[in-house]
Amino acid sequence: MTRQLPQSMRANERLHAMVPGGAHTYAKGDDQYPENLAPVISHGRGAQVWDVDGNSYIEYGSGLRAVSLGHVHPRVSEAAHREIDRGANFARPSIVEERAAAKFLETVPTAEMVKFAKNGSDATTAAVKLARAATGRPLVAICRDHAFFSTDDWFIGTTPMSSGIPGEVTDLTVSFPYGDLPATEQVLREHEGRIACLILEASTQLEPPPGYLAGLRELADRYGCVLVFDEMITGFRWSEAGAQGLYGVTPDLSTFGKALGNGFAVSALAGRRELMELGGLRTGGERVFLLSTTHGAETHSLAAAIAVMETYTEEGIAARLHALGDRLAAGVREVAASAGVGEHVVVRGRASNLVFGTLDAEKKPSQDYRTLFLRQLVTGGILGPSFVVSSALSEEDIDRTVEVVSQACLVYRKALDADDPAPWLGGRPVKPVFRRRV
């Protein structure tokens, strides 16, 4: 099947002329898609999107995992529209702020206070600042096996895209491996009395080893540092109460975003009252300039968040995401095995947050084979940088996706047999987001 995207290609050119990178998020760049197959989206509804050329797609990983209920979810849209008509921003807090905070703390009962912002980076950086203020220590310890924490210098300076960030800033960030308590303790010992916090995702593609999160909790307490869970992805997708609610380990601070707004811009910093109040007005100590954003309390975004939390808790959305993901993972594994590529097209991660790996003949990750696979998906009507599901997907959508993957796997097998995926790439390969040069 051939898809023509002339209007999308022209729109991409116009975007590059006006917007650095051609998109406002690097992960949405056209370098992440096969050449001439980077659709520019016109609109979406449910689990389906349409590009400006009129092509429709079943979509995965919607909004970089943010749109977990599907596009234009009636309950969320109605809540946002209602507040837009009542005013978006005022000189004093709106009552919606109080309602949103109450609903969040009811939904995530392990948190004692919450403050809202517009993006995840601001929330995680605020957590780092609180940890440094509370401990008086300069160093941040990040989990080196997790892909992203913030656009701010303390994290981006540790990636290949560190240009413009002084080494003095980067030197204040150290790292530890996921799942390895002895190695983490070694880092704490090497920098004893200097590490303000340990920050990580409680779970990603791998489930935490038995006792690991509880062990981290104990290490943080013993070495006097703050334990921070980045729940941008795990929040709501793992359970309505986040990963901390699912695994039964309470961090000192945690950060939420993505699924919280179903596409609306809202994030949250939450945690222990003792720490959070350092950024408030009821502490007798030195004040911390925590989160103070002009648009952090937009009424329509907070109303959307309330509707999202209500929908998750009342309709069992987390369970539905897991059921859909289980169906998709089983189907993909079956057709990949049938085509003889079961060890090359692999599905990983929790059912509610699936990604796929594309491995070459040596079973090593391959951007060329990823390009081949993505090309087959897009031309088959699947827009899937990942296999992260939304609750708007139907079982029929999942089955259709598996059909397209089945055809893609047949092509994949041909490329492996030829020991050369190039004839099926259609142009340059897709590229990693974090790379030093264009």
Automatic annotation (TrEMBL):
<dbReference type="InterPro" id="IPR015421">
    <property type="entry name" value="PyrdxlP-dep_Trfase_major"/>
</dbReference>
<dbReference type="GO" id="GO:0030170">
    <property type="term" value="F:pyridoxal phosphate binding"/>
</dbReference>
<keyword id="KW-0663">Pyridoxal phosphate</keyword>
<keyword id="KW-0045">Antibiotic biosynthesis</keyword>
<dbReference type="InterPro" id="IPR005814">
    <property type="entry name" value="Aminotrans_3"/>
</dbReference>
<protein>
    <submittedName>
        <fullName>Glutamate-1-semialdehyde 2,1-aminomutase</fullName>
    </submittedName>
</protein>
<dbReference type="GO" id="GO:0008483">
    <property type="term" value="F:transaminase activity"/>
</dbReference>
<comment type="similarity">
    <text>Belongs to the class-III pyridoxal-phosphate-dependent aminotransferase family.</text>
</comment>
<dbReference type="Pfam" id="PF00202">
    <property type="entry name" value="Aminotran_3"/>
</dbReference>
<dbReference type="InterPro" id="IPR015422">
    <property type="entry name" value="PyrdxlP-dep_Trfase_small"/>
</dbReference>
<dbReference type="GO" id="GO:0017000">
    <property type="term" value="P:antibiotic biosynthetic process"/>
</dbReference>
<dbReference type="InterPro" id="IPR015424">
    <property type="entry name" value="PyrdxlP-dep_Trfase"/>
</dbReference>
